[in-house]
């Protein structure tokens, strides 16, 4: 899976926001970058979706398959939520009766909890996309990976009102055996993709649609973005792609767990 190196400016902005959040939350946080490796203390806020419920580990392998079977499609939306673009994406998904998986950056979820709650209320699923969207995660220490994954899990869970993310997607596909094991131990299935629309490069609506048409035979999980820049092309592409796939007999589902 290709890294999204073209989004460096977005990474810097998010990393700066993450630093600010870390400083502000330092006094109350039960979890820091120095928390250690898998097997260290579990952050209180990420313990469960509802009081008293248990976290069930899931498979550590990276999932691509759809729970709708052979003719299923998984729509996945990364890097938000964003106050401009996420509502537009939600409107389109509602219009066409499509459910999607939103891979959220922790600082974005923390900044826009109302949008996280809207995503959940509409029946979509949440995915942990780390705190600061560092595409070099696979070169960092286990302590750093742990902080990024578990702090984002906490931020998303708190923003949603208690609904935990069901998946973990490494930024740019920078998974490691450790990060997959950690996420799976928290009930978050590592989530890959088959069709990278490269909408973050702003190639034009036609190019995004063509990429989906060309690469969908490679697998059912499609990658789009609702943050990190101007996503008008993504919105327009989804406006064309969703009814087109329905007409072709595809069903929209979630990645298997």
**Main β-sheet: number of strands, strand sense, barrel status?**
8 strands, parallel
Query: Percent range for helical residues?
Result: 25-40%
C-alpha Rg (nearest Å): 17 Å
Uncertain runs:
4-52
Write down the secondary-structure element order: HEHEHHEHEHEEHEHE
Termini separation (Å)? 20 Å
Kindly name the structural category. Answer: alpha/beta
Strand fraction equals 5-15%
Number of helical stretches of at least 4 residues:
8
- Please tell me the overall pLDDT: 85
Provide a descriptive summary of the structure in words.
The chain has 257 residues and is of the alpha/beta class. Helices cover 39% and strands 11% of the residues. The protein is built from eight helices and eight strands; from the N terminus they run H-E-H-E-H-H-E-H-E-H-E-E-H-E-H-E. It has helices spanning 8-25, 85-95, 106-111, 113-121, 142-160, 177-185, 205-215, 232-247, and strands at 72-78, 101-104, 125-128, 167-168, 189-190, 195-196, 221-225, 251-253. Strands 1, 2, 3, 4, 5, 6, 7 and 8 form an eight-stranded parallel sheet that branches. Helix 6 (177-185) links the parallel strand 4 (167-168) and strand 5. Helix 2 (85-95) packs parallel to helix 8, helix 4 packs across helix 5 and helix 5 packs parallel to helix 6. The longest helix is centred in the middle third of the chain and has 19 residues, at 142-160. It starts with 7 loop residues before the first helix and ends with a strand.
